[in-house]
Amino acid sequence: MLRNLSALLAGVVFGIGLALSGMVYPLKVLAFLDVSAAWDPSLALVMLGAVAVTLPAFALVLKRHQPLLATRFYLPRTTDLDARLITGAALFGIGWGIGGYCPGPALAALGIHWQEGLPFLAAVAAGGLVADRLGARH
Amino acid sequence: MTEFTPLSAVAGGLLIGLAATALLLFNGRIAGISGLFHGLLHRDRQPWQILFLAGLVVGAGSFHHLFGSDIPQRADFPLVALLGAGFLVGLGTRLGSGCTSGHGVCGIGRRSARSVVATAIFMVTAVLATAVSRHWLGLY
């Protein structure tokens, strides 16, 4: 119960952060990714701000034996830099660069601009299912 | 095209980092949005995943509707481009096990080499894709 509440609250704060940062607006994202025109470097600062927290804070949290409301930390175990990672990251970047949405902002779009968010997310789900067919890792 | 907004960018980034840290500290989980979203389609999904994503939608939507924004919404972005982009985002994040949040924010936060490499790659291909789609194909 508490675990569900903490997840909900973390999600709310995450969503507020996305909206405040401007990352939920694809034109803002594309103004960052489009380095040719009047470049808007804002989103570099979003990433820097987030990593400025997670770099020191994750190290501190992971020193604990277990999380506050769960019995263990659930961390990815894969460490190899394989073709699947590289291909996947490259394809994701292309999709992000065309549409201006990565998954978080696309979800947020359901409450901001659903006309784009809904079809985009349906396509994300389809792409994920195709990846599963190709034998992606779970 | 849009204005440089350093203060809200940094503040929003700090909140995103804080939320990711809270999910790790309390739940022991990585705030990777693509993984959580793809997970919704699978049978072993758990309530906390749905609640985190619902919170994200409500948090972002409430902020947008309460405080507004100067940034215009796209009115006529071609549906086929939207669907193609979404498909690549879904395929790529599933194959590559993460997106801007899972690799960019959390993975770099825990000093994962995979995430640093993935982030460098998707930033480069995103910049290239934007250049091609905007300046060669004339999309938005």
UniProtKB/TrEMBL annotation, chain A:
Q: Which domain of life is it from?
A: Bacteria
Record InterPro entries: DUF6691 (IPR046513)
UniProt keywords, alphabetically: Membrane, Transmembrane, Transmembrane helix
Q: Which Pfam families match?
A: DUF6691
Which positions, given as ranges, span the membrane?
A: 42-62, 83-112, 118-136
Please give the name of this protein: Membrane protein YedE/YeeE
Please tell me the species this chain comes from. Answer: Methylohalomonas lacus
From TrEMBL, chain B:
Q: Which UniProt keywords apply?
A: Cell inner membrane, Cell membrane, Membrane, Transmembrane, Transmembrane helix, Transport
Q: Where primarily located?
A: membrane
Q: Where in the cell is it found?
A: Cell inner membrane
What does the record say about its membrane topology? Multi-pass membrane protein
Residue ranges annotated as transmembrane are 6-26, 47-67, 79-96, 116-137
Q: Which GO terms describe its cellular component?
A: plasma membrane
* Keyword set includes Transport: yes
Q: Which PANTHER family match?
A: INNER MEMBRANE PROTEIN YEDE, SULPHUR TRANSPORT DOMAIN-CONTAINING PROTEIN
Q: Which family does it belong to?
A: Belongs to the TsuA/YedE (TC 9.B.102) family.
Query: What is the name listed in the Swiss-Prot or TrEMBL entry for this protein?
Result: Membrane protein YedE/YeeE
What species is given as this protein's source? Methylohalomonas lacus
Query: What broad taxonomic lineage does this protein's source fall under?
Result: Bacteria, Pseudomonadati, Pseudomonadota, Gammaproteobacteria, Methylohalomonadales
